[in-house]
Amino acid sequence: MDIFLQQIINGLTLGSVYAIVALGYTMVYGIIQLINFAHGEVVMIGAMVAFSVITALAGTALPPLVIVIAGILAAIPACMFVGYAMERIAYRPLRGAPRLAPLITAIGISIILQHVALLAWSRNPLAFPQIIPLASFEVGGAIITGVQIAIILTSVLMMGGLTLLVYRTKLGIAMRATSQNPQIAGLMGIDIDRIIAFTFIVGAALGAVAGVMVGTYYGIAHYSMGSLLGLKAFSAAVLGGIGNLAGAMLGGILLGVVEALAAGYIGDLTNNVFGSNYQDVFAFLVLIAVLVFRPSGLLGERVGDRA
Amino acid sequence: MRGVTIFARPQAKWIGVALIALALIGLPFALASAGTAWVRIANLAILFVFLSLGLNIVVGFAGLLDLGYIAFYAVGAYAYALLASPHFNLHLPFWIILPIGALVACLFGVLLGAPTLKLRGDYLAIVTLGFGEIVRIFLNNLSQPVNITNGPQGISRIDPFRFGSFSFSQSESLLGLVFSGPIKYYYMLLALLLLAIVVNLRLQHSRIGRAWEAVREDEIAARAMGINTTRIKLLAFAMGATFGGIAGGMFAAIQGFISPESFVLVESVMVLSMVVLGGMGNIWGVVLGAVLLSFVPELLRYTVEPLQQSLFGRSIIEPEVIRMLLFGLALVLMMLYRPAGLLPSAVRKRELAQTKGAAA
To answer: What are the chain A neighbours of B142 within 8 Å (beta carbons)?
Structure first.
């Protein structure tokens, strides 16, 4: 029971990040039924760009919070550009093609992005400069750091912002309409191409912030950090119900908590046969379990009718 | 071969086949003159053709998207390694272990297939990907508390194939020609590959092959026609896994050392790309795709390095990075401009022609 609360806190933190990334996956899948394999790489680029900016500004006399925000503000447009370019160059021409083609293309783009990042930033991981004072608070026997609080708060804010966007604005109505039935939406006067591009851009922006959060949490960023994170986030999206925004958020947080609890308790539960190095397996096991017993996810999927 | 209409006389076709056969028989010696490394590359290429043929059964014939295929390769390789190395001090002969490895891989294939049969295409892809990763993580970590797989260090000093005193890893001289270890393996692999191709061709044109095609095109209609789709899909997984297992066993013997690093996700993607780029569903396309994607990166490595050295005095971009960049680019470009693959199967060509016509 001693580490239970600690693992819950860790799980919530990690889960918030998964939730933000999962939102990117679920939005794209909801609107064009494509698993954007390259989304994890977008998150990675966000982290790398932000780290470069933060490292460059770390020597100046600016207050740490401003530096971090500057990093985030640099990462967001970069990722938006990458997201838009992906959609325009690689996904739009393949919109009517059988499912396999965009999937392979996504994998190809993921590979290209990873290695372009490798070229741009070299193999060595980028370290997060120690400019933020490490604050930590004790809550009921567990420790929660300032970074964790910041991550959870930022995630909640972004999730709230996205929900507002999708459910309370005209743009949001357009997005929902396009995801339900693109052709009818087009007949109603919605510019589908623009809406789909916008979906990618919003997802990429969220991913950028998520990337900065992950990088800050673990202290390093490197070119291959996107793939496993992306995979787990997609599992979270499926867990909650693909195409369903609330599902992505729930799935992300749930997956984070399950993973943290498993990492904490698996050693004791199995008498040290399986240690916490099996942590990554849990995401996949959870995914398989959900897909076998409840294929549409916890909150039900929301994917449009395909003509 | 079906569809080959460029030969006016049927005898010309057989002359072509004979020429190709001669070229294949003489190939290892031509390669050996450039270095034994090239013969090893050729052997690996043949192994990848094996894998591609296996994956072609799952993806091309039955239409089941599998992103974790390398797990079966790993299972076959580790089965061989555990039964023929100093690790457990077992040294069973290869003609016993290869079938065992194939059987174990087949079991894993059924294990993967059973719970995932009713999943939709995209979900199946993710689940199989997860399965591949799970297998790799287990292989990486099963070194405590009981050392089964030796973890990240892998298993080394794996026995080569042996017939009594005739070992496949020794060099021998015969008729004035030097048959090095890799060259011997090459001929055995070539023979097994021909067998595999024949098996695949027979499968494709059998009732099972037609059932797979039916399930791939329209599962509900197939079930309405009386095909037991569950069993057919399981069979596809099992057969594909078996090919992977056999290839894995041979890989372990030829390389003499295996570790979980050889069985990462990128390799699964590589095999899938070979199938898709070569021409999904078309056996010869798949062979071509595998050969191209195995040889071209190596050729690049041997030409780009010296080129960079001579132009810039140092290598700006490592060959490995160039290889992956070009690979990713090839995937994207192929899907944009020739999604059916280099040698498309007739069905795929028709399907894509329809889509293009509809979208135009």
So the answer is: none
